[in-house]
Amino acid sequence: MTISGIRLVTSSYKGFGEALIEVGLDAYHDKGDEFLCRGGSYQELNEMLSRARWLLLEQPFAVCGMDSRITSVPGADFCFGIGTSLEEAERSLKHQKELRKAQR
Fold first, then answer.
1. Closest Cα to residue 61, out of 33, 27, 19?
2. Residue 68 φ then ψ, to 5°
3. Which helix (DSSP H) or strand (DSSP E) does residue 6 occupy?
4. Mean pLDDT, residues 68-87 taken together
5. Three-state DSSP state, 84
6. pLDDT digits (tens, 9 = 90+) for 14-26
7. Residues 42-49: what's their mean pLDDT?
8. Reported confidence tier of residue 11, pLDDT bands at 50, 70, 90
9. CB within 8 A of 80, min separation 6: which ones?
């Protein structure tokens, strides 16, 4: 079994959950903005999570601002790490986040 740890860069869990379901992932909310997914292989999870990420980037989200006004944002993104254990997935997630931060 391969496990993926995911950390969202958006607060829209509904849209995120819908994207995971649409690509056929077996996903569970872990805590806060983190989700866990199970899959048969690294390649399977990587392909499905990459597809879910693309779907979210292409989909506008309605968000509520601090002033209670609803506005639309152009899309959402997330980082994910994949491993054969939760610890390995967490290390991979941390590495992916560091890479993304360095690219900014």
1. 19
2. 70, 10
3. strand 2-8
4. 84
5. coil
6. 667 777 888 888 8
7. 92
8. very low
9. 4, 5, 6, 7, 49, 53, 93, 96
Contact of 91 with 81, CB cutoff 8 Å: yes
Q: Which of 8, 3, 6 is nearest to 76 (CA)?
A: 8
- Report the DSSP pairing between strands 61-64 and 78-83: unpaired
Q: Are 83 and 2 in contact (CB under 8 A)?
A: yes
Q: What is the pLDDT of residue 13?
A: 57
Closest Cα to residue 55, out of 72, 73, 37, 76?
A: 76
Residue 96 contacts residue 15 (beta carbons within 8 Å): no
- State how far Cα 27 lies from the chain centre: 10
Question: Would the pTM of this model clear 0.85, i.e. be above it?
Answer: no
Assign 75 to helix, strand or coil.
coil
Of the candidates 103, 80, 55, the one whose C-alpha atom is nearest the C-alpha of residue 5 is 80
Confirm if 57 and 77 have CB atoms less than 8 A apart: yes
